What does this fold into?
Amino acid sequence: MLSVVQLEEARAMVAKRFASVSAGVQSVPLDRALGRVLADDLVAVEGVPPFDRSMVDGFAVVASDTFGCSDALPALLTLAGEVEMGAEPTCACGSGTCIRIPTGGKVPAGADAVVMLEYCEEYGDGTIGVAKPAAPGDSIVFENDDVKPGQVLIGAGTKLQAHHVGTLASLGITEVSVNVRLRVGVISTGDEIVDVADTPVASQMRDVNAPMLAAAAEACGAQAVRFAIVPDDYDALRSCVCEALDACDVVLVSGGSSAGQKDNTARVLSELGDMLFHGVAVKPGKPTMCADVQGKPAFGLPGHPAAAYFMFLELVRPLLGARSSLHTRAVVAQALPSNHGRAELVAVRLEQGDGVLRAVPVRGKSGLISQLAAADGYIAIGRNQEGLAAGAEVDVRLF
It folds into this structure.
């Protein structure tokens, strides 16, 4: 029999015990920062843009010169010069004058607005007709409007994406401090498991969990280390787990996590370290366990793929530098009964219609990987809930 803890307790125990798990910090060049996890808050040391710049092609003007103008009665301004792209303006704008300016050009002294080219007409004699009035600040991005010096731009723990790289580039940052990628050992165990490349016979099954969990770890910014499939043999499993613990920062063992005669994972992890829990009050994923082996987290995950993946997302992902998962709000498309005395995680796909985002349950047992392929994320039904009514608003945790 398993002595289960609630899912919330399991999360808290893992977070508290392994809050400091780290492989260190390193500096990487900007072109290698994509997908890495930021080690410290990124604070801007300079502003963006560094000057007032035009948002459009047009003419820099004194806004008050355009008040009351229209197509029928344009404001007539004298063209006083032109701003060259990437250059300091060589002329200033005074009352009754305007200066041609390109998108991104530096706004010349004296101008407080820019009028789009489409609302202006050149008469050929150095006079510009402006047919639309401009308010002060129109079509100008002012100095430090985008980024202010001292502003925290990207928080520590953020997995850097393409737009983050762009932000770093805008500030002239060529090196960035990131967490050294945690090495995650991935082990599958079971006499019935064969390699993906092999053709199963009799009651054998291809190893789904190891490729899936390795990919999930890599998606979190970690470095997955795959080990050979281990049969239902205590000595073999212990030897493999010890090897993984020597080489890795985190170890995941999928399979052998129940309480059967050949389920050796709990015995191995208990003997090697301090078992924090064996059994979580959640469906699917009840046999999940976690041990502290010399300060390293070692997880025993269920053999059923969907259950293993859910437990990875709930308990392992937060340790791997993934600061937070993506969420979205939706309404349940159909009633979902649930009265198991434990939390239930339900895979859903998202469908948009009539302006409403609906979460449609993807039916299937925990051993069926197809439900994950058809899903966009999952929802959690609390252990004290008797289900969800159709139309109930839920938080969808996105894969």
Observations:
- The chain has seven helices and 29 strands.
- Residues 28-47+152-179 form a domain with the Molybdopterin biosynthesis moea protein, domain 2 fold (CATH 3.90.105.10).
- The helical segments are 7-17, 162-170, 209-219, 234-247, 265-272, 305-316, 370-373.
- The CA atoms of residues 119 and 131 lie 5 Å apart.
